[in-house]
Specification:
Number of strands: 11
Order of helices and strands: EEHEHEHEHHEEEHEHEHEHH
Strand content: 15-25%
Largest sheet: 6 strands, mixed
Number of helices: 10
Radius of gyration: 21 Å
Shape: elongated
Length: 275
Amino acid sequence: MRVVCVDSAYDVDGRNSARDIVVTGSYSGVLCARFVSARNPCAALGVDCAIGPEGASIAGLWYYEALNLPAAAADVTTVELGDGVDVYENGVISRLNEPARQCGVEGGMPVRKAARLLLRSRPPDPVEPSSVTRRTAVVREKHGAIVCTDSIAFALPEDRGRNVLCTGGHTGRSAVPYLQAARPRGFICSDGGRGRNDSGIRGLHAVQDDGLPGATVDARTARMGDGMSTYRDGMISATNQLARDLGVRVGMDAKEAARLLLVGQNGAGVSPSVE
């Protein structure tokens, strides 16, 4: 395996192969990803080019992710554009996809170090679409935990009446059956941008009679489909009355809201009824 530096994504050609980590001086958009991925490299590193409207300059990272190909982009202010060697020698990672993260790449890491990590590591094979992914308990107490998972559909029997779930999906009516089946101690999901007639938070009120305290985070503050981002980055945009009774308020950060859902305002812990 080897690290190959090229000035442009269009320079990746038949000399490159599945053994190569390709570092280019190009932006990391979809068009460049199409050119690079056609040669089936092990991984791809490019430039974020200030990300741009609709994230166009890094959209290729998720094109690669769909192929389970690790990819990352360097902060454009750290590199000379159009110089693949400079990207390798001086670039600093600003954005990355999940396969790259699974290989140990992190934001703020030098491109040189990221490339070497990618030489030694391969992401695991993709899981089945219905499989539980990225389930992490970020806080544990005797009576329960705060658990981040990417979808409420990934709730487990152990969550019932015990754990607070922070998930990455919206809280529209399609979430209601999953919430009712999971019956967690509490939940924080995304408002999905709220939608027409506040449809993105409708589930908050639909599960009131089920005794489920819940809240949503503003979709502009946390990445949808990423429960860890809901917990780490989210700001509360809406609550139901049961959550308000525990002290959760609009404008609160999700970490504090999750703590209140787990232990209550007095720290004693309040569990929903479990049938």
